[in-house]
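Researcher: I'm preparing a figure for a lab meeting and need a structural model of a single chain. I don't have an experimental structure, so a prediction will have to do for now. The sequence is pasted below. Please return the structure as tokens so I can convert it later.
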Amino acid sequence: MKFTGKRPVIINIHGGPEGQSRPGFQGRNNYFMQEMGVAMIYPNVRGSSGFGKTFVKLDNGKLRENSVKDIGALLDWVAAQPDLDASRILITGGSYGGYMSLAVSVNYADKIRCAIDIVGISNFNTFLKNTESYRRDLRRVEYGNEQDPDMAAFLEKISPNNNASKIQKPLLIVQGGNDPRVPRTEAEQMFNTLNTSGKTVWYLEAKDEGHGFRKKNNTDFQFYTTVEFIRRYLLND
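Model: Understood. Here is the structure written out token by token.
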């Protein structure tokens, strides 16, 4: 075998939140598995599609953090597996998966090694304020209406940006400068909060990209940056 011993783990959380992880072509993720010896897990937390209408609604509004608890349960499952290394877990995801990466970094800092937030939401109130207007009402149905003071207070309470003091592990933030869906302000405020407090945080922004990187020179740079981040913070002792 090329790799021996327990395997480090990358947990990759889909966006949406109504998305769904299904078997598919791994592309560059093969490098993490075949060349770096990392196991990859793609969970479908509460709120994912494909499991019925009731399941899709289990994370709506004030149920938001229940989906984060599903990752907590997954972390416990990893710890019970004889071939997985629970001391080396990286959490990552894009868009809503980026929020989940931040939320897990806040709520389960003692159970992960590091995290990567890709175009993620760091505060639902500021996100709803700054996302493009054509999307706002649709997103309010999912996340809650920030115009309601009670809901706004709840969204502030669970905001990763407001709970950044609980983040103890290295974080890589990836953002498109022209993102109309999750504006760059979500990434900037998260980076500034962590950087000001002296936390280990990397920030990668492509000014000519939107909601995720698409241009080859940018996707290449993101991949190489991710490889170095994994080597430095997931694989190193």
